[in-house]
Amino acid sequence: MTNVQQDGKVALITGASGAIGAAVARLLASRGMRIVANYRSSRDKADDLVASIRSAGGQAMAAQADVRDRSAVVGMLEQARAAMGEVEVLVHSALMPYAIKSFEEMSVDELSGKVEQEIRAASVVTKAVVPGMTKRGYGRIVYLGTMESALPLEGMIALGTSKAALSSFTRFVAQELGPRGITVNVVAPGPVGGHLHNVALEHDQEHKQRLTAQTALGRFASPDDVARAVAFYAGDDSEFITGTTAPVNGGMAVA
């Protein structure tokens, strides 16, 4: 990928206090974007992220909002717009809570609730940024998906099903927004070292070794691996790519 400067574009990163969101924020900031680092409750982590970006010469601000709450997101966008200008890049990496259970163990409400919350959050944040992108005739939207949507892993039916719905949602939104100069894509990681929903997995050495053996590159992804794929979609090198889902799994599908 070309490491091009992005001319001060404003990028909103939801879930920026998480490992992947923070890696994305730092990388985009290093490429010249001005970062709005969204968090729901982890203010200290968001503040540390903003401080690290600023100390490296970048521009960043923290912005609190539950991305499932429309009024909170609208308020966050007003705050970001006043401080930095219109959001031109959205990276939606906020992780909605979900149960890690088999289908038999999982209640209907746990499964359907995860799907509903996933699409609700994506819809809320997308609707908030699209008007500004439309005015400019330019926008980049990147959602974080998961490999489990296509390659099921034990206990991940809620996550995999909800992210599969997100990939379908992406294709419809991409088709509708394309004529406005807005691209919409998904980055779908495999297991990511240090990521919230993989912490338990990392302590199960037998399961971890089994998954690693199924990966052509012989390791889990790092947050930086995922961030580089996101940065491609968030920049101008991807201007003729939309409605796609990019697997970032080290070749797990082909190993």
UniProtKB/TrEMBL annotation:
Gene3D superfamilies: NAD(P)-binding Rossmann-like Domain. GO terms for molecular function: oxidoreductase activity. Transmembrane segments: none annotated. It comes from the Bacteria. Keywords: Oxidoreductase. Belongs to the short-chain dehydrogenases/reductases (SDR) family. This is Short-chain dehydrogenase.
